[in-house]
Amino acid sequence: MTSQSQQQSPPDDVPAARPDALEGMSAPLTVGVEEEFLLIDPVSRAVSPQGPQVAAAAASELGHRVGTELTRYQVEGRTDPHTCLSKAAEELRATRTALARAAAGRGLRIASSGSPIIGLVTPVPITPGTRYAESLSLFRALDDEQSACACHVHVGVADPHEAIEVSNRLRPWLPTLTALAANSPYWDGRDTGYASWRTTTWGRWPVAGPPPYFDSPAHFQDLVEELIRTGAVMDRGGLYWDIRPSHHQPTVEVRVADAGLTPEDTILLAAVIRALVATALEAIRTGEPAPRPAPEILRAACWRAARDGLTGHALDPISRQLVPQTAQVESMLRALAPALRHNGDLDLVRTHWDRLRTQGSGADRQRAAYRHHSSLHDVVDHVIEATCTSQTT
Fold this sequence. Notes:
Blueprint: E1 31-40, H1 51-62, E2 66-68, E3 74-78, H2 85-104, E4 109-111, H3 130-139, E5 150-156, H4 160-170, H5 174-180, E6 186-187, E7 190-191, H6 197-202, E8 208-209, H7 217-229, E9 240-241, E10 243-245, E11 251-258, H8 263-285, H9 295-308, E12 313-315, E13 322-324, H10 325-343, H11 346-359, H12 362-373, H13 376-387
Parallel strand pairs: 8-9
Antiparallel strand pairs: 1-3, 1-4, 1-5, 2-3, 5-11, 6-7, 10-11, 12-13
């Protein structure tokens, strides 16, 4: 993520507060997005290892808002922090367009899928760099599945104590976010049977998945130091929990989601996560205790959400009951309505959620594309087109 210095003074794009906002709720929090994309050869539809070259070409237009990833199959786009979601959405679309233009300059396309659909070669080609070399030395074949693509949402929370408390309060909603953002049903030429196979592959890492419940910032710091000392992670940047206080910005970073198929999918996710954080902050300030689901139940709920996405039943980690996943999303949105309304995002979220209920998640739409002619090429073409409409397919 780029600098969150905009938080030091009141931003000029804060929407006017609505009279029905929660009493005492502060100005909308900043939100910024990181998206990872696959590079695709439009003829073979296979992934192409030209990430550093595409990132370098895009940097002339995007500057700090583009970067490389561990594998050369990928490139990353970023937005700056914004309080107005419409401005964040404009920048997100512009970033995708610029990356698509840079990829086209090398005869390639970008694809926003949580996993490579066809053509993955292992071991994967690693991007040059000391950190990437250290990762390969430490984690070995685990790096072969780092070609999975995620969407990370940063929400401005500067106070370390509040950041930890926000993490604690967001944990029960991680399965719901996983299902909402599922967009990785295929992996290297086959249907995995999962809506989010990326979520499952991440579960193999020593520090990944739902974070622990932390009693305090000191508890968090002590655990992180132990993990670094024992070699489970290289440093704070290697904490792959689904939620973490950012190691270099005054934000809470939510990392649970697959890369969004369309810009609208990503915008929906960003709006929901910002509202989750704002709602958690209100609960902290009113002294409401944080829910504390059993880690085993929460892990099982995340697994089920990754398998079934929006189409099945969710395991509610608090009630431990199975409920339709769409009903679980509705429950979350009802809880978030005051924050969404305050941020000016309620209509946008309802519109995009209604669209997902009709069209399905990114995973559902990938599978629908396959059913036309039972062709994975059709899936890749659909993802390319959905990623950025300015691409030529």
